[in-house]
Structure formats: structure tokens, C-alpha cells
Fold this protein.
Amino acid sequence: MATSRRSRRDAPPPRTGNSEAATLRAFLDYLRDSIAAKVEGAPEPQVRTTIVPSGTTLLGLANHLTFVERSMFLAENVTDWKATFQPSSEDSVDGVVSRYRETVKRANAVLDGCTDLAAPIPRPGGAKRPAPSVRWALVHMIEETGRHAGHADILRELIDGSTGR
């Protein structure tokens, strides 16, 4: 399936300050950037073509992570997680990546106001579900984004041979 091998220089893990919050946020941003880099420039229609038995697609991963960010940090309710893996037929690579980056920017604005990692993550608009701690939310998002970054690495290499972060 891979047509040509392109290698991007690997980005090293982030160097951070000494605080726990700075470390957690730096690693989450590092993984977020890795996701966006894996999807950017991916060719159509392969970016949305099912090439693994699970049905996961590269564009679907970025779309899903956008919903995860919105749910965790912006208190948006998601009722069908499976559907978040399916981008619409009108979605483009640039559009999905742009939407993901904008969501990350909004999520970071929420996190900028969080000074206590043990405090609950803010839930604007009277959200009904309980809020986890900021620490739990950051660790969960590192796990979720890291897991899908690994999937994205494999899918992108299968699509066009592109490797690296």
C-alpha cells in the first residue's frame, strides 16, 4: 500500500520546567502536535480509506481526538463515541486538522486558568456530569492522545510510507 518512503525528523520529547503542571501540559502538547503532523499532507482518498480490520482511518483519528478534547476540556456532551471516528464526506485534511488545532487552542485556554491540579476541571454551562481533577484530565488526555498517535504512525506509514514525528 505504501507508495514512497518519506522520513520526517523525529521530534524529541519536550524539555519542561520543574512543575508537574508544566510537564504534563508539555507532553500533552507534544502528542497533540504529533497527531496534527501525522495527518497534515496525507493524501486523499487514502486518509479516509479503511486499511486495517478495525476500520480506523487517519482522518477519523483526528476527528475523534477533536471530540475527546471538546468533551474533556470544553464540557461538550458526546453521545456516540463510535461516530466520532467517522469524518463527514465533506471533511478535508486541512479542515479536520484546523478544527483539531482550534479545539486544542480552546482547551489550552481553559487549562491556562487551572492553577490547582487537584481541583476539578471547569465545567462551563452547568454541565451535568461530574468533573475529574485537572491532573486526571491531563494524564487521561496524554494516554488517549498517545495511544492514537501510535495508531496514526502506523496508518500514515501504510498510506504513503511517511515516518517520523
